[in-house]
Amino acid sequence: MICLLLLALSGNARAAQNILVFGDSLSAGYGIARADSWVNLLQSELAGTHPQFAVVNASLSGETTAGGLRRIDQALRQHRPAIVILELGANDGLRGTPLSATEHNLGQIIALIQRAKAKVLLLGMRLPPNYGPDYTRQFAALYPVLAKKYRVARLPFMLDGITPEQFQTDNLHPDASAQPRIMQNIFHALIPLL
Length: 194
Known about the structure:
Number of helices: 8
Strand order of the largest sheet: 2-1-3-4-5
Helix content: 40-55%
Largest sheet: 5 strands, parallel
CATH class: Alpha Beta
Shape: globular
Distance between the termini: 34 Å
Number of strands: 5
CATH superfamily: SGNH hydrolase
CATH topology: Rossmann fold
Structural class: alpha/beta
Strand content: 5-15%
Radius of gyration: 17 Å
């Protein structure tokens, strides 16, 4: 009887599929309570609609694509995700990192995720206009290029619909009131991958 119970428990554990959120402060919940973050809200949404999925957050505030490339192998081995929500690049842009380096790093991260047999949802980002029209336009264009090259799902802009009043005082990080809209943006893009 105990053996059957253990087999049933291990079968249920295997049945859960991880969704790995791999991003920076926008996904790490910078400046807000963890319970209010879009990642936590996504887990609550999935519990009701797709209970076979568990959300694992491996996001780090301040993370760059270079840092993400160094960490992705370990995260994939540790969490064995079915899907990875990839949200990186904003810190590269804010630091003026050469676009070719950001594109290379994101491409390598996507390739490693695909090699691990996981699906990718790439979250697009935009930069504030004070970085100049050429750089901001070329930065935003990286995401559709990568999505097409690697044939991955893409959300054009994760912060779509967030008003200026819904940002913290740094004008970079959405506050708690913005998190439900961010979650809905991501959830709608995620549905086809579930």
